[in-house]
Amino acid sequence: MDLLLEVNDLRCGYNNQAVVDGMDLHIAPGKLVSLLGPSGCGKTTVLRAIAGFEPVTSGEIRLNGKIVSSPGVRVPPEKRNLGMIFQDYALFPHLTVSENIAFGLRHHTARSQQQVVDRLLELIGMEGYGKRYPAELSGGQQQRIAVARALAPEPSLLLLDEPFSNLDIELRERLAVDVRDMLRSQNATAIFVTHDQNEAFVMGDKIGVMNDRRMLQWDTAFNLYHEPNDRFIADFIGKGSFLRGELISGETVNTALGRISGNRAYPWPEGTPVDILLRPDDVLIVEQSPMRCSITDRAFMGADTLYTLRLEDGVELLSLMPSRYDYAIGQKVGIELVIDHFILFPLEPIVETAQADQKLPG
Amino acid sequence: MHDITPNASALRSGKRTGLFTGQLNKWHYASGAMALLVAVPLLVVFSGWLQPSTDIWSHLAETLLSQLFINTIKLVIGVGLGVMLLGVSLAWLTARCDFPGRRLFDWMLMLPLAIPAYVMAFVAIGLLDFSGPVQTALRDWLGAGNFWFPRIRSTGGVIFVMVLVLYPYVYMLARTAFLTQGRSTLEAAQTLGYGPLGVFWHVALPMARPAIVAGTSLALMETLADFGTVATFNYDTFTTAIYKAWFGFFSLQAASQLASLLLLFVFLSLMTERLTRKRSDYHDTMRSGQTPRFRFQGWRGWSITALLGLFFSLAFLLPFIQLCLWAFEAVSKELDARYLGLLYHTLVLGLLAALVTTAGALVIGFARRYQPDRLTSITATTATLGYALPGSVLAVGIMIVVTQVDSLIHTLLASLGNPATGQILSGSVFALVLAYVIRFMAVAHGPVETGLSRIKHSLPEAARTLGATPPHVLTKIYLPLLRPGLFTAMLLVMVDTMKEMPATLLMRPFGWDTLAVRIYEMTSEGEWERAALPAITLVLVGLLPVILLVRKTLQDR
Predict the structure, then answer these.
(1) Are residues A255 and A163 in the same domain?
(2) Which one of A192, B141, B353, B444 has the fewest CB atoms closer than 10 angstroms to its CB?
């Protein structure tokens, strides 16, 4: 399948200061993808460069194979056939809901404009709101109008810039699912930028995690959680703890809890100090196990309870157990490690970045 | 609007980038051109000193110069003290105290802004001079020579009139400052044992000082720019001397040398205003609700009411009624085709200036929005500095440039065998409108800038992603959203242009007399009744922006 969007080795910035560096992104038609990262990581700049709002200092952006951005080239936003949904919705306050949705349909007849508007109002479940003004609508309603407005000209690619961050949490989750279903029903291609991992997981078939101007990993939600290729991602996505140890062989690490082996080998020299990533569901509390520790905190979460455990040498681990097992703070328990994904991070960067072969191509 | 993007995110994050980023673009050129409009006449005025001095100048210097300095200094000190005293005490009374009729006085005290100073001047002279109705009545009653009456045509008289029309600048800024002072600060002073006067003197006044100084500087800039008032009083200042050098000796060079001396005074006031503006934000950040007012009840309250009533009559009501009476007497003779012609010229010039100035302000606003670097900030600030330049100074600077350009065109046309007249620009309204545009750019810039700052950057961007080209974004997004701001800007410029006297007097092309010109002509001959109809017209027009202002201040009361 031909690629809809190609971002190759993109660099953006001002005054010799890069905001985005060495960024690659390839998207096929019909895909919904997320760009996830903390604020200031450059994800919004990538989106705005794709939209044509940011100049490119090196690299290129192609839409349907044609270069739209490269150093010295910038096709203006209105010529790119993209739709964008903004964090503050950016509804035109002087236009009605219908006029807002029809704004991108200048070349349509009045009748076909009305048809599109009616169809989209139905899609977003807001029939009868056409004559209202944006200021008369709630935040969630404004958000839906913004989606309808962006979809109206049938853009080849939809860009969503933190579209839910101004809504309260409850509404946010529901609307994220709604918007995803709307986009799917229109067979749209979309890039969704967010700092909220739950939203990123809901919206994206694949998720790119960015930090400090770069894309770190381009993967499914499952792999980002269980197979992070970078310590930052291990920290940023989900909860987890690190167990310090020393590499004995490629697949075995000597730790305070004894020797721990996994399902894969690392090509690092023996004796390399490493951290093993332990997700809370990797650590099971088993009363009679010889690995002893004490419970220092617990957080009841309905179906599960998250325990904070302290080993004798002070290292803290997290354990997620079904809440029918009930342990008290201060209780001494035994634990067992069930490590399906054996993820190690060296304490110091290894010169020959052997990690590179872990990186999955987009 | 093509390059709306390069620094949009820099602006969003509130970063001011260096002097400028990368190469110059059209926003730099646009705001740079607007800055040149202000800078070129200024430089030209100062360059008058570079030419060898003329006989006219040495004559002026020997006979007039020291008197000009003394008169100007007296005027500045008198008006400065007067507006400060009056403005601050009135602001304190309406903002911090309570007495019968306080809510009415709150806005009525702004009304004198609508009366041009030169109108107040001739009303005061007409009423209070030796042959005026007041002194005549006193003579009839007491007999000639049996009473003392202050001479109105004096330094004190000029200062009195100027203070009456200019105090609202201080009043309005001080009033806002007092209103926004936090309750807790004032209450803390009260718990520490200060009474109303103590709180005022030791807490409220020092906190409002930047606002008071800024208001006073604005009033002083108006004082220095004034021509009509001092001319009516035959009180020689730099503006009247410029007029004489120009029309009496036909020496633009002597006029420019006088103008540059006047500018020294202007720069002092401007610096004061700018420096205090920067610090004017030190009122409370924690505003804790309405601050209770000092209540004056019974005879104390009513005596304040009576005092303010008397003052208001003096500053607005009586002059207004007198103007109406005079206008009524003269209306049958004066309301003729010529008056309509004056009105027409005034309106056309006002409208023209309003359109061009607002368009210019829009360009500056967009340059600031899309190119938020230091260079743009400097050029945009320069471009909006014209409000400090007296109309007569501007007229001199522009006229020198324009006559040079004219003679260039003339030589060019003559070399092509076309013996055209040498007054192509200088004989048209072009030069005059240019003067208005420069002088009132700041007036238009304020509302335009406020309007622009309310339009989120995402709106034009959303429009672009929906296929709108930059011209479309302008007509479909910016202009509709900016409509109230543009309307205010145009109204303010139009009214200020209609009231403008010195530049109009010096630069109007033949046959382009305006209401202000007519007032000057009639008052210089002592024909108060005949000046009253154009004067009352200007006062009524001048009330429009004051009403806007009043509505705005009442909203955030």
Answers:
(1) no
(2) B141
Q: Among the three residues A177, A200, A230, which one is the final residue of a domain in this structure?
A: A230
Residue B457 three-state SS = coil
CA atoms within 13 A on the CB side of A224: 29
Confirm if A39 and A33 have CB atoms less than 8 A apart.
Answer: no
Whether residues A174 and A291 share a domain: the answer is: no
The two tokens of residue A128 are 């009868």
Using an 8 Å CB-CB cutoff, list chain A residues near B2.
76
Q: Using an 8 Å CB-CB cutoff, list residues of chain B that contact chain A.
A: 2, 4-10, 17-18, 21, 456, 458-459, 461-469, 472, 476-477, 480-481
φ, ψ dihedrals at A274, nearest 5° = -135, 165
B38 token code pair: 């202000």
DSSP A240-293: -EEEEEEEEETTEEEETTEEEE-SS---PPTT-EEEEEE-GGGEEE-TT-SEEE
Distances (CA, A) of A333 to A280, A288, A293, A296, A314: 16, 8, 6, 11, 15
If phi over 0 gives left and psi between -120 and 50 gives alpha, with beta otherwise, what is residue B271? alpha
The residue ranges of DSSP E strands in B31-158, in sequence order, are 97-98
Are A154 and A283 within one domain? Answer: no
Do A252 and A199 reside in the same domain of the chain? no
For residue A229, what are the CA distances in angstroms to A217, A233, A235, A349, A357? 7, 7, 11, 13, 10
Domain that holds residue A122: 5-230
Are A246 and A319 found together in one domain? yes
Give, in degrees to the nearest 5, the angle at Cα A88 between A83 and A93.
90
Same structural domain for residues A222 and A251?
no
Number of domains, chain A: 2
Taking CB atoms and an 8 Å limit, are A149 and B466 in contact across chains?
yes
Same domain, A60 and A147: yes
Residue B196, amino acid: P
Cβ distance A35 to A193 under 8 Å?
yes
Kindly report the CATH number assigned to the domain that includes residue A163: 3.40.50.300
DSSP run (H or E) holding B178: helix B155-179
- In chain B, the residue whose alpha carbon lies closest to the alpha carbon of A85 is B462
Asked if the model's pLDDT at residue B422 lies above 80, the reply is no
Of A103, A128, A123, A122, the C-alpha closest to A113 is A103
Nearest to B215, CA basis, from B86, B382, B74: B86
pLDDT tens across B65-117, in order? Answer: 889 999 999 999 999 999 999 999 999 999 888 999 998 998 899 999 899 99
pLDDT at position B556: 58
Write the pLDDT tens digit of every residue in B466-497.
999 999 999 999 999 999 889 989 998 999 99
Domain finish residue from A230, A247, A272: A230
Q: Are A56 and A11 in contact (CB under 8 A)?
A: yes
- The token pair at B495 is 């009214």
Cβ–Cβ < 8 Å for B218, B208: no
The pair of structure tokens assigned to B376 is: 């743009």
Strand bridging mode A190-194 / A32-36 = parallel
Cβ neighbours of residue B21 closer than 8 Å, sequence gap 6 or more: A14, A15, B6, B7, B373
Taking contacts as CB-CB distances below 8 angstroms, the residues of chain B near A77 are 461, 464-465
Residue with tokens 């200007």: B538
Residues A163 and A298 in one domain: no
- pTM attached to this predicted model: 0.82
CATH of the domain at A309: 2.40.50.140
Contacts for A20 with CB less than 8 Å, ≥ 6 apart:
A10, A11, A12, A13, A42, A45, A46, A49, A213, A214
Q: Could you tell me which chain B residue has the CA closest to the CA of A12?
A: B6
Burial B314-338, CB ≥16 within 10 A → b, else e: ebbeebbebbeebbeebeeebeeee
